[in-house]
Specification:
The protein is mainly α and 95 residues long. 36% of the residues lie in helices and 4% in strands.
């Protein structure tokens, strides 16, 4: 795939980047270089290679996923202008 100056101008417009007309050939060349690098990556054989999280073998830290109420209901409701029965009380909006 090759990027011409027209396509480079369109990409710059979509990215909301102001590019002077004399800079378009250089921008198109840069886009073509980037696409060349991507094509090189596509040629790498990765069959049998497991995805990694890091370059060093380690497991991610995990925590138990427990549901709690936070234990701060009274503190939170103390900030409310009106609280009833353990909930925020708000004025009726729809009749």
């Amino acid at each position: 795939m090759s990027i011409d100056e027209g396509t480079a101008a369109k990409v710059a417009k979509l990215a909301r980047i102001k590019v002077e007309p004399e800079e378009l050939p250089h921008l198109a060349a840069e886009f073509n270089n980037i696409l060349g690098f991507i094509e090189q990556l596509g040629e790498v054989d990765v069959d049998g290679v497991e995805p990694m999280v890091s370059v060093t073998p380690m497991r991610l830290k995990r925590r138990t996923d427990g549901v709690t109420d936070g234990g701060m209901q009274e503190r939170i409701l103390s900030n409310a202008p009106d609280a009833r029965e353990g909930f925020f009380a708000v004025p009726k909006v729809v009749e």
